[in-house]
Each structure stands twice: as structure tokens, then as C-alpha cells.
Task: structure prediction
Amino acid sequence: MLSNEERTQRILAHRAKRYPHITDWNHDHGSPTRVVGHRGGIATSVEISRSYRRDHRPSSQFVEPQQVLDVIRVAGVRRWVLMGLYGYVGYLTEPRATQAVDVLVDFDELDLAIDAIVARWPALQVDRQVVVVRFLDPGEIAITGEMKQVIDLMLPDDDCYHEILQHAHRVDPPTGDIIPTLEAACASKFAALISPNRQFIKKQQDAVDLRRLFVPNQCSIDRFELERLGELVYPGGGHEILEFLDLAIEEKPFPTRQLASTLDGSAITTNTKLTTNSLPPVVHRL
Result:
């Protein structure tokens, strides 16, 4: 395979020969550079998903984040944080869509949240797993024929998530939503990216989202807090997350080995041979 330098030289030579009249090939001029804020970001994401469901999934339950948060609030769930894309979308410059509402809740309030959601959406099917409870929508069928989850109740199964639930969150004033702090959002996405239990294809989106969190917010990120939260992901994670931050700012690739996955406990082989003992034995999702 060609190196990046060799590939770039070939592309530039081909362009110069075939299209000598074009002097600027940049398609990114005018791209947004300012983060949108939680209220604007979540509104855009919800509208994209709503439009998709209206046109392509008319049998969907049309579950949206505000509905889920209202349901668990009314039920009396006191400790919760809106996670996933809906939790960090306000820190991005360009919101995107998602089909699932992720909410982090405490162990002792899990059943309360489950009962409230089942009462509100009785058609949803409950898939109770060790670290997450998923609610599947019979009206949201993927091309594989499988039902898609539309709500995930996440549990604080490690120190990082426990810290987010207890302290590393904030209230968004316009909406009243409880969301991760900027540093917590970055740490959670970093945790997903390096997890040995996450599917490789999802890590690709994690890498993109982590860069989109880091770069436009680089002047706002508290490096000491980011390092503290990174260290809660795994020993040494604090130092590594700062390295990832600098790589993103410098527009350099993330280490290939961090994108390796093992879902069955087998050894990982990428550019460097690693065993599962070489990576933090944790399960993370965002």
C-alpha cells in the first residue's frame, strides 16, 4: 500500500496534468467552526431523525430524548445524565443524527426507570443486559431484519461513568438537561474508542466524533480535568488522552492499535501484536 506522501504526490501530479486551470481544490471552505450549543444541536439531531422516521419508518414509536427525560423525571429518577450523541452534540460544530437515546442512571434507580419507560412505550421490547438495558422498537427494523434500540439505560459500570453520574456533568440552562461536561464527553468517547469490547466499525465513528469534540473546543478544554477523567478510564489513560488531544489538534492520525477490537477475548493483531492483557479490561459505550 502507498504511503500518504506517495499517494498525495500521485494525486497532485494527476490533478496538475488533467485540470491545470483549477488552483484551489479545497471543499471545506465555509465549513462551520463554532460549536452549536446543546439546545441547537439536539434540536437539529432530533429533526433529522424525525424526518427519517416519518419518511422511512412510519411504524416507529418516534421516541425522542425530551420524552424519555420527561418520563424518568416524572417517575422520580433523581440521578441521571443524558449520554451518547444527544449528550455531547452541543459540543460539535455540525450535529448529526442517531436513533438511540442514551441515559446513564444509577443501579438503585434502574428498575424505576425501566418501569416508567415500559409504561410510556409498552410496544418496546426490553433487552436487559449486564451493563445496559436496551429498548427495541418493532417499528424500527434494520436492513438485517433486526429491531433497532431506541433507548439505552446505561449503568455506571466503571470509575469514569461513576464520576460522570456523580460529579462530571452540568445542567444546560436553556433546556434543563443534565449532560456530561466537555471533558467528560471527551473521556467517554475516548473510552469507547480504545475499548477492546467495541466493534471495529463503531470505533471509526468514535474516532471522527472524538476529533470533532477535541478540535473546535481545544481552547476550552481543561487539560488537568481531561487527564483526571482519562485516568479513570484505565491506568495511564490520563496521559494517553492528552496525547490523542494533541494528535487531533495537529491533524495527525490516532494510533492504529487503538482501533483494534476483540469481542471474543482472542488476541488482537494490527500493526503491533497485542493481547487482551495489553488493553484496559473495560466495557465502554457512548
